[in-house]
Amino acid sequence: MDYSILIPLFFAIFGSMIGSFLNVVILRLPENKSIVFPASHCPNCATEIHWYDNIPIISFIFLKGRCRSCHQSISWQYPVVELAMALLSLALYLQFSISVAFPIYFIFSAALLVIIFIDSHHQIIPDVISLPGIIIGFGLSFFNPFVTWQNSGLGILLGGGSFYAIAGTYYLFTKRAGMGGGDIKLLAMIGAFLGWQSLPFVVFGSSVMGTVAGIGAMIKQRKGGKTVIPYGPFLSLASLLYLFFQEKIHLLFSILFVPQ
Asked: Which of 157, 163, 242 is nearest to 196 (CA)?
């Protein structure tokens, strides 16, 4: 038996279990409900979910995507979040192994995953995630082998400050809010965890993804310039790309933007 696969498998399973909890957070946090009580239950019939029906990914497959009690469909979001967190946990292990950086960026990745789904559904980024995230990211920078506390502090100031300036300028010329305060706090949190060096790519990458999605939404919604899409998911996705591919990104940016 090849035991070398057991440790990566453990981290993937651990990630899926955390993903199951994140589903509760995604569902209840926007409604200001406790994420601890009551226990997990069907949102349709309110029947408490037994442990054997709450195994990440596997239970969804065996139940064929339906509640055992009322037979109503279960949202595909549940296995998607569980699988996404399993893959993120595995990728973090492969990137950082068993080191101090792993739990730091596990927390960061889990927070971003929650933000992606909440902002997509409700167009809000809860302060209860971003504001503590700023403090936690800066505090952990004193132990983070990849980001110094100076770079983290600058990331908070430049991240939040740059988006605040952009939002203020946009409102000055259009008299419309083009960017929410949640996006500003989120970029400050990203700067805290990844350092100020991440901000050019995060802003650029999220803008490209947001523009492509915005054009698609304009075509679909037929609202022209009044089309509104959440920006938090694109900031989060760009941050995850930077987290795993920062060396390649810095190399690409140096080729494209630094005079040779």
From this structure: 157
Alpha helix positions (H), the chain: 6-28, 58-62, 77-96, 101-122, 127-140, 149-174, 181-194, 199-221, 232-257
Average pLDDT over residues 189-197: 97
Distances (CA, A) of 16 to 63, 88, 155: 17, 9, 30
Predicted structure pTM score: 0.89
Token couple for 171: 């409102």
What are the structure tokens assigned to 223, written together? 């609202």
Owner of token pair 């109503």? 72
Q: Say how far apart CA 246 and CA 244 lie, in whole Å.
A: 6
Tell me the pLDDT tens digit for each residue of 36-66: 888 888 878 878 888 888 899 999 999 888 9
Cα–Cα dist 16/10, whole Å: 10
Give residue limits of the domains in the chain: 1-98, 103-260
Supply the DSSP string of 144-188, one letter for each residue: -SSS-HHHHHHHHHHHHHHHHHHHHHHHHHHSS--S-HHHHHHHH
CA of residue 36 relative to chain centroid, distance: 21
Q: Is the pLDDT of residue 222 over 70?
A: no
Range 61-84 average pLDDT: 91
Distance CA 90, CA 68 (A): 31
pLDDT of residue 218: 76
Residue 249 CB burial class (10 angstroms; 0-12, 13-18, ≥19): buried
Q: Which tokens belong to 222?
A: 């037929």
